[in-house]
Amino acid sequence: MKKIATLLLVLLLLPGLINTRAASTPMPIIVKEYLNATIVTDGSGHYYCGPWNVTGYIIVMNNKTGETISDIWVPIDTTAAKFTLSESNVTAPGYAVVKFNSSSYKPPDYVLDQNPDMNTFMHITQLRSGDSVTVKYVKYYTTGCPPLLLNESMNPSKIVNGVNTTVNVTLTVKNNIGSDVHVKVVKILPSDGGKEGWKNEAGNPSFTGSSGTTSPSGSAVGFSLDRKRLYWTKNGNWPDDWFTLPKDQTGKTSFNISGTPDLSEVGGNTKKIPLGTVYLYFYMPHTYTGLKIGKVFAVGNADVEVKKRQHTTPTIWNETLVFYDTSGVFKYDLFNATLWATEGDTPDSTLISDSKHSDQTFNITQLLPGEIYTWPSNGSFSFTYSGVPKIWGLAKFRISNDQNKGWWNYTNATYSTDSSGNSTYQVIEEIWAVRGYLVKARKEIRANYTNPNATVGCYLIGISLSNIGEWMSPYVEMYDVVPSGFKPSPVSTEGNMVFKPLEMLAYDANSASPPDFSLKHTSTEYTGYVWKSYPLPAPQLGFAEYFKGTGLANNKTVTVVLNDTTQKSWIVYPVYEGGTLKICNKTDGTPTCYVEGEEFTVDKTKFKVIWIDNNLTSGGGYVVVSAEGNYTNLNMKVYNPVFVRYFVCGTGNYSATNLFIVGVDPRNTLDALAVSAPEARMSYGTSNFEIVFVIVAIAASIIAVRKR
Where are the transmembrane segments (predicted)? Predict the structure, then answer.
């Protein structure tokens, strides 16, 4: 018989201005550096500089992916910048723990190996959909001028009130940054009918004539149809490509502006009035301070499966690992696949000779959402063992460096100045970080939405055990692990643990009261639970699904299986009516609703509403509807699927990746899989964001166990 149990470890990897290129990137990493400076010009070509600084922001975003990103490692090089990043300057959601590396806290070796030039590593435990983490830093400069100087000179430098005058303007951009920069310039004149000190008539002021000589070569000046905007770009159009301004050179262009001033709009006395606003956009392939972002590691939704087959020769066993990209968003790099077998019940127990196989390569393969990778590609490894081995599988993956399906590092720089010469540089650098055969155990890990802003990360654990084969199973044991760094919450009730339906629990450790489990094992590394279930009927199969709330808007399409193996798609949703929760089926138009405990028949197949979570009255929760069968040996009703739910909370710098483990008794199994299904809503400021756990950076460790 084949048995499969799976442990999936996933390492999880802000507001502000987001470049439009990043709008579709699931996990943009953005470094924004603003050069804040004030330049005063007298209109004759002279300028005066005061103190200036570079204010930077490192932003890690989960760009409304609808999924959660976890165990995010963002490598950073601050060597050239000559400053240290501080946790006191971090802005993050209350549930996210953010730490920087120290002598006592280091990133995994595979992160270090891929980032040998980085000296700082930021770890984020979790990012839900729509959320972000921001790290601020400031570097001050008390002498000299900022490195990109924008200046205007005007002739004449003074105009007479009420007299139409043409002013010739020379605009220069000097590059003192130390490297080539890519530039675009827009100058926008005051609008007609405003109160800036210009006579209220059409086209006053406006650009007139054509531009003068423009440098450097490869740049040109054009105007909008209403002659209110000047575009200095590669071809003179907007939007258009950048032109390159080499280091230590000055770009120059000239143009005419004609208009009639009206000082009565601004008090009637002599004063400066705006001659438009100049926006200078530039970017360079690095930050001004020299800060750099390395190769980000993070993980998202995935499944792992290990398969064990007994050869026709009883002492020969075959082992296979299957990795599933179950994310609807992310492409993954799979960089570690390991299989091994042990004599004992733990991964580190006695290793069976010739059973261990490992491939550690960047990358073994890349998988798009929905793709599957089987290792080895020829089907399986084999080894000899006279007993019943326990098969373990480990997979490590990370979200790919992909602009549309992964994390991406964006760079952009922006500088603007007004006609008075008061300049604010906005230098922004945007970096932008299973299936089986017969019996399946599926674990879902979700944010605990009842407390989304808790100071610790709390998770809702839901595990469904299903018989997806054609015949009734024997007794089945299901295993789960609460790893180090997590505790059931509350501890006294094992996280309010429930097993549904309770009559399917073949052995209850404490039949007098909840929590409901068959066995509990506690060690320094983990707490383990075992549930022993009565046989699960087949082929009939119901469903165990999470709903975000009640009402038709929260409907889901589920697939059930009837006694004759026919599959049916139902549109179902919970409702709360008259103080009672119900589950409704709208498949045939008019909804039919059932309360908890109610039975109904569809084409000679009996179903029972096993459980409707009371949390659905105020938020999200599970609904379990099981197909009914009969176990003749005990003349009892049995159900498919069965379901376990409980809560855990992390403490300190916890790793949510370690929650991705689940096991199923190999005596009758096909697979077990652990998945992240973190969909929630949380309040952030005045807006609501879909929260998803995004995984940007590192590797997901997946361990699968099978027994016979």
Answer: 687-705
C-alpha neighbours within 13 Å on the C-beta side of residue 282? 33
Judge if 135 and 241 occupy the same domain: no
Contact 136, 122 (CB under 8 A): no
The CATH number of whichever domain residue 254 belongs to comes to: 2.60.40.1170
Integer angstrom CA distances of residue 82 from 75, 86, 100, 674: 16, 13, 16, 43
Measured CA to CA, the distance from residue 601 to residue 608 in angstroms comes to 9
Question: 616-621 — which CB contacts under 8 Å span 24+ positions?
Answer: 616/547, 616/549, 616/550, 616/574, 616/576, 616/581, 617/550, 617/576, 617/581, 618/450, 619/449, 619/450, 619/548, 619/549, 620/446, 620/449, 620/546, 620/547, 620/548, 620/549, 620/680, 621/546, 621/547, 621/574
CA 60 remoteness from chain centre: 9
Helix (H) or strand (E) holding 628: strand 621-631
Overall number of domains in the chain: 2
Q: Is residue 165 part of a domain?
A: yes
**Whether residue 172 sits in one domain with residue 127:** no
Residue 418 pLDDT:
29
Q: Mapping DSSP to helix (H, G, I), strand (E, B) and coil, where does residue 145 land?
A: coil
Based on the fold, state whether residues 38 and 70 are members of the same structural domain: yes
Is residue 529 domain-resident? no
Q: Do residue 154 and residue 269 come from a single domain?
A: yes
Query: Which regions in the chain score pLDDT beneath 50?
Result: 1-20, 412-437, 452-453, 666-708
158 and 116 share a domain?
Answer: no
Place of tokens 């370690």: 658
**Residues 63, 166 within the same domain:** no
**Structural domain boundaries, residue 252:** 148-280
Q: What is the pLDDT of residue 454?
A: 54
Rounded alpha-carbon distances, angstroms, from residue 249 to 37, 327, 540: 20, 48, 76
pTM above 0.85, yes or no: no
Arithmetic mean of pLDDT over the chain? 80
